[in-house]
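worker-03 picked up job from queue 'complexes'. Input manifest follows; three sequence lines, order preserved.
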Amino acid sequence: MARKTVVPFGPQHPVLPEPIHLDLVMEDEIVIEAVPSIGFVHRGLENLVKKKDYNEMVYVAERICGICSFMHGMGYCNAVEHIMGVEVPARANYLRTIWSEMSRIHSHLLWLGLLADGFGYESLFMQSWRIREKILDMFEASTGGRVIFSVNTIGGVLKDMPDDMIREFVTILKDMKTELKKTTKIFLEDYTVKSRLSGVGVLKQDDALMLGAVGPMLRASGVDRDLRETGYAAYADLDFEVAWSRGCDSYTRCQVRIDEIFDSIDLIEQCAAKITAGDIRVPVKGNPEGEYFMRVEQPRGEAIYYIKANGTKFLDRFRVRTPTFANVPAMVETLKGAQLADVPLLILTIDPCISCTER
Amino acid sequence: MSKIMNFTGTIMKNLFSKPVTTSYPFEPRVYPERTRGHIEIAIEDCIYCGMCMRSCPANALSVDRKEGTWSIDRFMCIQCGYCVEKCPKKCLNIIPGYPEPMPEKSIEVHHKPETPADETQEPAASKPAEAKSPAEAAPASPEA
Amino acid sequence: MDDYGRDYNIEVIDVDQLLSKAAERHMTGWRLAQICAVYIEEHQQYELSYSFENVYELLTYRIKIDKSTNVPSITQIYHAAFLYENEMKELFGVQISYMANDYRGKLYRIDEETPFIGKGDK
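worker-03 finished. Artifact:
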């Protein structure tokens, strides 16, 4: 009977982008069980609703996380707009969709770089992030910030993108497509990368559904669910196909995310063709009253925003259920039976955003 | 059959081309025009209503109507641009150029330009008008 | 149905019905979406929302309790609920019994107990 040892993993570890702690119960290099423990970055942001009114909370909601920042702001604004019955103009919806899809490309490129770093392939990490720099420059030219945009407001968006800027972005993205094809070919076809990723971290379809996995974790296990099909923002006018696959292992998750990058470039081109002229915001008066659940498809999965308002300018409750929060039980399940050297890789395959999880 | 040496093309191109990074302190960085760097005020248009102070999510601004001063703590400012939105006279502006690092924190105070007698007064740091003024540890320095 | 064609509605139930409703959802293939707590100061009550999802529909059960009521845990039916229930217990002080993975107040490692309810109400 082999002896069990407990190895503490994290919170400070070179491969983790954010601190998370796991206690791994091991038997001779195979992990039997993992107990997650979070709480190193808890800032209590949801408690700030008592001190900041509902307009200022947009800026707080954006700063929950650096990578998912735009969609947190958009989800919050959509929920409050729904409670107050404000209808956002069509041009604002298209602009929000363009920025959301650019955020998705940015997040997936960042994840590809971290994945390559996770199994030691640092030059591939550098190539992925070199492509990502172009997107950050596009963000800075259109919104003013590279990571935190501060462009959402209740009733629309604050800054407009003139048509020649949109055309320029589409050209830059087209050139980026050829570079992306070269880099992503390495992820999908190289012998060393494939041997690290195939067959590692299998999550079967029933487990994925019952444990509550969301996003690419779920879509790589054979379930085609993508909240963009419900048609919030401008998605109702665009047509796209959900990227999903039946592989159930880490290689498939990598493939699903790469497919999503190319789908996003396609969606931005469609938006640029269909965008209409008009206002970018409507004036909003009064205070919200009521409650609403808003669901948004973030790069990492589905996020649920719950807002409860009572008629004063301070909200009663603002709750974000982030995708990583839902993916942690699924991650713990994939860790069972893994080798110790694969543990950092498996933590990275759920695309952990621990600042979002703990707010 | 998956390939083995298919990264070689990129490596060769990388070895023989010039670096992607710019040598930053020697080559100045060119910011696009919409970059949110820092806040500037056209003090002659300010009416000291205090809307910017009440709307700042980081409590970095303080306005004293009696003294006629508008002060900003650059280290607390998060460059969100909400004060620029809210100002009824549109005298605030957010322009490129991030705040420089400094050895100690200080608050920048702007005085009303018409009455010269105000220039010699103590800045508003010693007399917070509302409870929302930022806690200042270092002595405030008058605007240069 | 809301404007986006999605179905979402809120049903108010009692604490005793919670386990049977959760089992019903589990058997018909619904997944757990989120569990949330709100503290209403005027009535000194908690409002718990248990949301379940099925593809694009969202159904929420609302339970209104006061501070001394004990809520049974649904981790035996939906194992993934342990994170949400630990968070509710630590930040709001809701009393939950029979949790599968009970962190006993140490999930978020915070100094202050139950910071999300006001100081006078602890």
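worker-03 released lock.
Chain B touches chain A at residues 2-4, 6-7, 9-11, 14, 20, 31-32, 34-36, 55, 57, 78-82, 85, 94 (CB under 8 Å).
Chain B has one domain: 31-142.
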